[in-house]
Description:
By secondary structure, the protein is an alpha/beta fold. 18% of the residues lie in helices and 32% in strands. The chain has helices at 20-30, 91-99, 109-113, and strands at residues 11-16, 34-39, 48-53, 59-65, 80-84, 103-105, 115-119, 125-129. The longest helix has 11 residues, at 20-30.
Amino acid sequence: MPLAPAAALHLRIARPSRDLAAAERFWVDGLGLDVLWRSAAEAPGEHDLLVVGRPGDHWHLELVGGEQLAVAPTPTAADLLVLYLDGPVDDQLVRELERAGGTRVSAGPYWDRWGVTVADPDGYRLVLSTRGWSND
Length: 136
């Protein structure tokens, strides 16, 4: 049975991180997201957790790490998180992302034409797209 229509669904993107402090610098200090939640492992089998996003948005990024991390990050060139800016990418924002531990990379001709791609400290790629998005 398909999902029932809803006013808004919320999307959580979860991925492992080797270093949550480095990830926080990139996503919070570099991109400007907020820390929405943080917790530390309290028992065997648990992990540290950092959730970043913007209050009121319908998505957030959950980063899982710590000493008990069961799965190491294994990003590929096709693992893209695309943010549609509907306008030019601010050069200062790209510099902030690089200062915060990101690395500017190519994501291929299409994304290079329509934005800027920066790999986070774990190697996952963030595309800042100049294009807009509409589901209408």
